[in-house]
Amino acid sequence: MFPGAVVYVSRRGEAIFHQAFGATTYDPATSRPIRLDDRFDLASLTKLYTTALVLRLAEKGALRLDDPLTRYVPEVAERWTIEDLLAHRTGATADLLGEAVRHGIRPCQPGQAEALWRVIFQCKPGVQLREGQSHYSDVDFLLLQAACERAARRPLTDLARSVIIARLGLDDTCFCPPDPSRCVPTEVDGRWRHRLVVGEVHDEMAATLGGAAGHAGLFATAADVGRFCEMWLKREQDRGRGRRRGRGRWEEALRAHSCDFGLGWRLCNASFFPSLERHGALGHLGFTGTSAFIFPRSGAVFVLLSNRVHPRRDAAPSRLPLLAAMAEAIASSPPAFRT
Fold first, then answer.
1. In a domain, 339, yes or no
2. Does 245 have pLDDT greater than 80?
3. pLDDT digits (tens, 9 = 90+) for 172-213
4. Domain containing residue 90
5. What is the CATH number of the domain that holds 10?
């Protein structure tokens, strides 16, 4: 299923399981055992950090969730709001890579960022959505990146580091990691880069943008992802204890804003890990093999980071049954569970 993985589980902010499994690749001659401090390419888990960035900027008054996107990105013709993007209510194309190639973009090659942004800004709804429906698309979170950068007048890397990463003490989380030896390899890219991808973002569109994007690009350890997830639950628990009055933006992010999504987070329901719906769980997956789930009722967090796309993205069986079984066991375990 994957060469290696790290699992992190906590309940109410206390780590109760943290263990590494397997190796960096399947080749004994070049591989090494996975370590707890290895950084994984988070892929689409990056969207959760972009969501947190949007909510922090909203708290500071730099933007509002009901603002039209055109207030910050006038190049976009559609009448979408910031909240529409967070809840994947735009219907924007899910095949940005194909759209980019059709416009002459050479994925993963330098000097293409400006042309790719033009393609992103021109994206139209590819799916007509009825009220309450959603359609998962990377374009939504690239547009959120653009809105955040223009609202705050700072690049995404700077915003993520100062507003989210440093604020939470996530020392092992970053875009464009400086030390590839601490990064777990992803795919042997036979289409665009023609080499093993390690220490640089796997996602082709994020790579074309220089390695940092609103939808993909962050690298982190499982423990750092776990602490990031715990932040979401602590926000809700604080409100439950009366530390903040009223329903705030962070709490609203964990409520349904479409049939499948809160804000950034995916609701566990009939179409996404249905066995976890009764636990009120939310989660997100990353294409490289990363996953994160939160359980607001019990205060539990479950993170599994792997490199399932190694050596090829189509080489492994589905990880979904394993994730479902592990998450169900965590959700159903007694509060005093320890390893």
1. no
2. no
3. 999 999 999 999 999 999 999 999 999 999 999 999 999 999
4. 4-332
5. 3.40.710.10
